[in-house]
Amino acid sequence: MKALVVRAFGEQPGVETVADPTPAPDGAVVAVAATGVCRSDWHAWRGHDAGVVLPLVPGHELAGTVVAVGARVDPRWVGRRVTTPFVCACGTCPACRAGEQQVCERQEQPGFTHDGSYAELVGLRHAEVNLVELPEEVGFDVGALLGCRVATAWRAVHHRGRVRAGETVVVHGCGGLGLAAVAVAAGAGAHVIAVDPSAGARTLAEQVGAAQALPTADDLHGAHVSLDCAGLAVSAAASIRCLGVRGRHVQVGLLPGGAVLPVDVVVARELDVLGSHGAPAHAYPGLLAALPSLGLERLVTRRAGLDDAAQALADVGREPGITVLVP
Fold first, then answer.
1. Which residues of the chain have pLDDT under 70?
2. Could you give all domains of the chain from N- to C-terminal order, each with its CATH number?
């Protein structure tokens, strides 16, 4: 198969012909129809993730068709249109048995712990735990985004932030994750304020449901829920400071180690500070049911083939919206 292969951190990866994956006994092989280009992929390529071992095929946000399964997997999965959470859970550790597969103690992540989806085929473990069947009406572009950004936003808004209709929700950072959070929170009936220095990102945020879009959060006060989707110390602090008494801060973007947050504000206002990491496969039915009202197709602003994948990876964050690769 053809795949984009990273052989040195930060250096230009190239498309190569590599061996096709074979399914593990509990796994599946998916023919990739679409895969999102995510900033997390960029971090892996740049060498910012200590656990990444080269050579590696990036990509963790995918949709496609199952073409093979292992001996311990129901053969009826073959031919189905699927996506998968980027956290591929084992299904048997204490966290998984408690239903919290998004924090599985033995999790694998395509594009990080093993070869990912910037390829024509991708192998996935623990298929029965992680595969999510896509309805026919869900296109592969949107289906790919359900593997990471949209599912992550869904859980951050509904399960961690506990957003209710009529509440004011502030979303800091309108990259792909933040835009998904805007759409999901607006779909929940919230009054959504998007914050991003990019005028293009703010325009796209308004198109997917933001009532307001501002370059900074300096004048915001009294929000019920605030989500930091940028993963910066400054945006996390701004997210906390814009909350009202008993508000909920949800940290969705990965913060650098050593970030200092305004804990004095947390204590004085009795704020909830919550982390949110992906979503388990069993949480997808609610998301799939809500998809028709979210307009997520507008988040995909660019499509490219594998030959352009290296440039798409290098360009992450330079233009608003999401790039989807079509191998």
1. none
2. 2-148+279-325 (3.90.180.10), 150-275 (3.40.50.720)
